């Protein structure tokens, strides 16, 4: 996490976690969103490559492969709820 953001959250006059629960709709939704985000962050298939040195067609090919992988992983993880799909795509 960005150090400035961490500092601001630590000095807040309210509990940032409560705001997170409100934005997510419930504490359970927050837990599930974080679970889905961690699945992606820890999955080697979704690690970012340096696209700067790829040609346009290579970038397109990588994007298509990642999209296909995303659909496969959503099925594998049992993600079918529209809100969960949105979290997964982020």
Automatic annotation (TrEMBL):
Where does the signal sequence lie? none
| GO BP terms | fatty acid metabolic process
Q: Which residues form a coiled coil?
A: none
**Pathway listed for it?**
Lipid metabolism; peroxisomal fatty acid beta-oxidation
Q: Which domain of life is it from?
A: Eukaryota
Where the record annotates domain Acyl-coenzyme A oxidase N-terminal, the positions are 15-87
Regions crossing the membrane: none
Gene3D superfamilies this protein is in?
Acyl-CoA dehydrogenase/oxidase, N-terminal domain
GO MF, one annotated term: acyl-CoA oxidase activity
Any GO CC annotation of this UniProt entry: peroxisome
InterPro entries on file: Acyl-CoA_ox_N, Acyl-CoA_oxidase, AcylCoA_DH/ox_N_sf
**What's the protein called, per UniProt?**
Acyl-Coenzyme A oxidase 1, palmitoyl, isoform CRA_d
Q: Native species of this protein?
A: Rattus norvegicus
